[in-house]
Amino acid sequence: MTTVTRDARAVPADLRAGSISTRRRITDYIAKSLMVLALLIALVPLGLVTAYVISKGAHMISWNFLTGRIPRQQTTAGGGIGPAIIGTLITTAAASALAIPLGVLGAIYLNEYGKQGPLARTIRTMTDVMTGVPSIVMGLFIYLTVVTLTEKRTAFAGALALACLMLPVVIRTTEEMLRLVPDELRQASLALGARKWRTTLTVVIPAAISGIMSGALLAIARAAGETAPIVLVVGITYRPNWSLFNGGNTALPALIYNNASSPYEPAVNLAWGAALTLVAIVLIATLIGRFIASRYAIKER
Amino acid sequence: MPDDDSNPPEVNMTNVSDRQQINVAVPTVGRGGAGAGPPAPSAPQVVLELSNVSVFYGNYEAVRGTTMTIGKNQITALIGPSGCGKSTVLRSLNRMNDLIPGARVAGRVAFHGTDLYAPEVDPIQVRRRIGMVFQKPNPFPKSIYDNVAYGLRINNIKGNMDDMVEQALRGAALWDEVKDKLKQSGLALSGGQQQRLCIARTIAVKPEVILMDEPCSALDPIATSKIEDLMYELAFDYTIAIVTHNMQQAARVSNKTAFFTAEVDENGVRHGRLVEYDDTPRIFTNPREKRTEDYITGRFG
User: Does pTM surpass 0.80?
Assistant: First the structure.
């Protein structure tokens, strides 16, 4: 055995920060500063939009505003946006009920069953194409198929259009999340004698649920803010309508679109209030979704 | 067989032939077993019988013509260099190879005389009776309790769930370490504990055979020794087949050892081949084949 001895001649290593060359320190500093700057710049529009919407819309918010009827005359002060809130809630909820289960099931098919088969690849390509379709085209499609056939504008037609927009988003995000679930977990389950559907339902989906939920929320947020298809297939009403299938309806984005370009101040104020309400609804939906996801998500530690 | 006198008694150094002395240490198991592995009946009942089994991945023949039997309540080790097909053979025993697209098994794998690859055989039923522990500990991202209960639930095993979970955890020598934190995530355990949790999960459904695919390769020596002790205990109730890279491990735990290697055929294609299959002490002290000896002595592989 040799014993370890300290070599007396060895120069002790300089471990102080100052021993790094000035050039490297400056490079490091510049890189760090640039990244912080990029973050701040990215936050500017977000902050401005939020601040502006709050400053313009906050004074409008009151119980009467949230529940009151939309004034028929744009010059009339007062009134509220109740019908548009109801419309937004029921169309978005109906669209979610249509698109999320279908999208999640579709993604399960793609990732767990279809894999790289010809059918799955075709569906995947179509989904990618659908993601890029402008919402007005989707609105037009529903207008020509549903609205012209049934000869009436309904919240349900709007829900169909929004569901078409949500579907590709849900499918793709869910598939990505399922792909992240390690194969070892599937194998472990199958090795215990579980069938594939059981493995998917009890192991794969719980492992991916929080990601799936995030994707669904993203889709909901997108749908709730869609304007073009709503204007086209739902229309504008001034009275509250809780029915999906009977009578016209409206939604917050359509109301904002309609009022924001008005020359009359009461109408513009209504639009700002509606904008703030829309932001708040999306935020609340996101928070609720996150809460549910965290309840179901499996704790890592 | 005269022992080499120059070596201490815990090492079973034996003169193989006049060609070469084997340098691998074959320690005897501490618990009264005179040779390697737990005591097993001299002529054990055959549980699994492989006759001329070849495994193909697409057109590539990964393993060619394997014939061997696995006896009841024995530990059978499969050793050999990387790429020799030992894991492939192991996975063909409970039809896990079915999950790999293009994988196909030729020849006959009989489980108590029933051909596992007969068309009417359900792979789920096979895996229910022939469980598997994987190389990387892969507990489900669920609680410790749910990890063990999973197999019981999916197989609709009735009875007192708490008792069965406790039994399985005791069987895997994990109960004392986790009894106060059954609701915690299985992922919070250490690597060795996770692997014992996976063993508990496997034995909870009371399979007849446990296949272990390099169960200790991701574990430290202390955790490895715990798993090895556990295997010894488990062999009283189960039949175990283990793939290992660690020759000492095979020598320590197994009753019988199969040595695989990769051969290049006349067309220049590599195939895994079973070279020699015999009682473990014999393989490690007096192998018939030169290639086995070369591998055991560390000349290649």
Answer: no
